[in-house]
Amino acid sequence: MKKAILILAVLFATFVQSQEMKPIPMINVSGEGKIKVTPDQAAISISVETKGAKATDVKKENDTKIDAVLKYIKKINIAKEDFQTQRVNLYPNYDYEKKKSNYIATQTVYVLLKDLNKYDSMMDGLVELGINRIDNVEFKSSKMEELQSTVRKLAIQNAKAKAEDFVAVLNQKVGKAMTISDNSQAYYPPRPMYEMKTMAMADGGGGAPRETLATGEIELVVNVNVSFVLE
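RE: above sequence
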């Protein structure tokens, strides 16, 4: 009798477990959100590089120029949180052609320019003060967080629209989402094409204005995978 009860209990547990493990009808789809925006800011890395025979002289010359550069950046009302020293280097260098050693000192400063209309005048002033390298220009948007939120929503909407297209002929409906995974790559803003040219001015100071920066557009992309229950 006890043995029969045990067998019935095992069978019942197996039946319940099989019911619990019954697969849920689902559909897995991918979605993409995409937005293009015109940048309104530029992150610029600029450097002063000096060379010479004595390390102390090279470092002193470099420090003097950087001091003038930082004072100029403050003078044109760049907020203190929008510029920062990135790298400071001083190292020996051997010239194999001349068969002699010298020293190279480099200091790099990062500047976040929030008014692109100031770009030309700022760069002119910095070059006059000793900047001799522009290492990178990266365009940004002041509304980046808001835009990224919008793109995420577009990606989910795109995924749901795909799922509804697939099940439209099956007399089923797309139910609640069971899983959502973000498959977006780490965001590295693309380096847009930009020009470093100066247009010739006509005699007498007239002619077309200079155009030395082409901002282009920034593209934000979010990719997701979503699993929906089918009803």
